[in-house]
Write a structure and sequence with these properties.
- This protein is an alpha+beta fold.
- It has three domains: 5-23 and 36-137, no CATH class; 160-246, Roll (Pdz3 Domain), CATH 2.30.42; 252-400 and 418-490, 2-enoyl-CoA Hydratase, Chain A, domain 1 (Alpha-Beta Complex), CATH 3.90.226.
- It is built from 13 helices and 21 strands.
- The strands form six sheets. It has a six-stranded mixed sheet with strand order 10-13-14-17-18-21, sandwiched between helices. Strands 1, 15, 16, 19 and 20 form a five-stranded antiparallel sheet that branches.
- A hairpin with a 2-residue loop joins strand 5 and strand 6.
- Helix 3 packs across helix 6 and helix 10 runs parallel beside helix 11.
- The longest helix is centred in the first third of the chain and has 16 residues, at 67-82.
């Protein structure tokens, strides 16, 4: 399972604290109403957990909301989970809170006395805490400690599991395979996309929620798990046993995958032009790029198309390493945090020295992928071809650096925006200069992201499925790639 983990975890963490709302009784006319279940008891130390969470946001977020705003958002989320209405004057009462003691007294008073449906206190607490996160700009997620370890494994391209992505089939009320990572344990065992999981180690999955499913499928490296699956339109199930393990995904791909392993990296035709597509930024990506660079050199390639379409992410460290591999001088970019600004320079020496390079971008190039493209453009290392990249201000979570920070005793961490990504000269990734707006832009709206040197109209390239190779690039049918090849043919090789 990949990065959607953060959002799944957020939903798991989302059912939290409850607040004081007067129960709305039904009108006296008609049959007697069904009594509402009593609310579970207020969890102990809840005020302390809210203070710890808001303290982390206030200290580390690049532009945090006020503590009272976070508390108000959390209390409203609590009431929604409890199925009760928000009392009048709530905002005024929350804005008056100034100390942990006042917050604790407020929670005791505000905790709902009745709820619309039976819920454990843990679900109400999670709803409140998730509501606190919803008020944080740029998206924020609470992640339990065990899920933090999984997230770190995924970011390092060393995730331990059977390597599938899951969804839920509402008709069957069972977990379903959304994607199978090519070459992983599930793929080798014969698991297919859209398979419905009927059993996990002999346990029926009917009615099993996502958290229970994930917990049963996960396990230590080297341990076995047996699942029974079937395709939706088939009646005969298949039983497969597989061993959990690591499986490194290719995050830098060539033109086409070779049957014996590895990639063809040279575009078809007589020109010595290579093609690499960075599909994800993980800890392994710089090493993969350097390995394929050696292959390109050995095959006599002397110009490169670097495809960054579909590349996003928030891994600043990996983006810096990639940019440093591609640049031999100049600033890579700048990160502005709540505590100051840092500019990252490129060291001398670089891959593909003297080669002309064309970089492909489009509206799916975002986050640190966009930051990398800007660094190559600003240092005149590459010609950018395609469509303008994403607008980070119009797409929460883009154009920012995100960090995982422990909360309180370390049982939880929060992922939140801790810095803005800026170009080497301090410009934001998005221009807000009204004079630079195209005539069709709405007043006050920004120009979209990084502007290519050669703008090519066309649909965005769909990112490859989880763990699968991207579609083979075709010069004839891809106008962006065709323009890049034309530019490289006309570019003299530098020395």
């Amino acid at each position: 399972m990949q990065r959607p983990v953060g959002k799944i975890l957020a939903s798991l963490i989302a059912f939290t604290i409850a607040s004081a709302v007067c129960f709305q009784a039904a009108l006296a006319d008609g049959p007697a109403p069904t009594p509402s279940p009593p609310s579970p008891k207020l969890p102990p130390d809840l005020a302390k957990r809210i203070m710890e969470l808001s303290d982390v946001v206030l200290e580390h977020h690049i532009d945090p909301p006020a503590r009272q705003q976070m508390i108000l958002s959390g209390i409203k989320a609590l009431y929604r989970a409890a199925g009760v209405s928000v009392p009048s004057g709530l905002s005024r009462r929350v804005s008056a809170l100034a100390t942990p003691e006042q917050l604790a007294a407020f929670l005791k008073e505000a905790w709902p006395k009745k709820i619309a449906r039976p819920l454990p206190a843990k679900d109400l607490e999670e709803a409140l805490l998730n509501g606190v996160c919803q008020s944080v700009p740029g998206e924020a997620f609470l992640i339990p400690e065990k899920e933090r370890k999984v997230s770190e494994q995924a970011a390092g391209n060393r995730y331990v599991g059977i390597h599938i992505a899951l969804t839920m089939d509402k008709q069957e009320n069972r977990p379903q395979i959304f994607e199978v990572v090519e070459g992983g344990p599930a793929d080798r065992a014969g698991v297919k996309k859209d398979d419905l999981i009927e059993q996990i180690d002999g346990v029926d999955t009917k009615g099993m929620d996502m958290r229970q499913t994930v917990d049963r499928l996960r396990g230590a490296e080297g341990t076995d798990v047996t699942i029974k699956v079937r395709q939706p339109k088939e009646s005969v199930p298949r039983t497969m046993k597989m061993t959990r393990g690591q499986h490194q995904r290719a995050t830098v791909q060539g033109v086409r995958k070779r049957s014996a392993g590895g990639w063809d990296v040279r575009l078809d035709g007589s020109d010595p032009i290579g093609y690499l597509h960075i599909t994800q930024m993980m800890a392994s990506t710089p090493h993969e790029l350097r390995k394929l660079a050696r292959q390109l050199e050995s095959e006599g390639v002397s110009a490169l198309v670097l495809d960054l379409r579909g590349l996003g992410g928030n891994s600043v460290h990996t983006a810096i390493l990639l940019a440093d591999d591609l640049l031999d001088h100049g600033p890579i970019g700048r990160v502005r945090t709540a505590h100051g600004e840092t500019t990252y320079p490129a060291d001398p020496d670089a891959l593909f020295r003297g080669w002309p390079m064309a970089v492909l971008v489009d509206q799916t190039t975002s986050g640190t992928g966009e930051w990398l493209a800007a660094a190559l453009q600003d240092n005149r290392r590459a010609i950018l071809v395609g469509t303008p990249t994403m607008n980070p201000r119009a797409n929460p979570g883009q154009g920012v650096m995100k960090s995982l920070i422990s909360v309180g005793d370390g049982a939880w961490s929060i992922e939140l925006a801790t810095g803005y990504l800026e170009r080497g000269d301090g410009r934001p990734l998005t221009s807000f200069d009204p004079s630079s707006q195209p005539e069709t832009a709405e007043p006050g709206r920004s120009k979209m992201g990084v502007q290519p040197d050669h703008v090519i109209a066309g649909p965005a390239v769909r990112p490859p499925a989880l763990g699968r190779p991207a579609d083979e690039p075709k010069v004839a049918s891809d106008p962006t790639l065709r323009k890049a090849v034309q530019i490289l043919r006309e570019s003299p090789k530098k020395t």
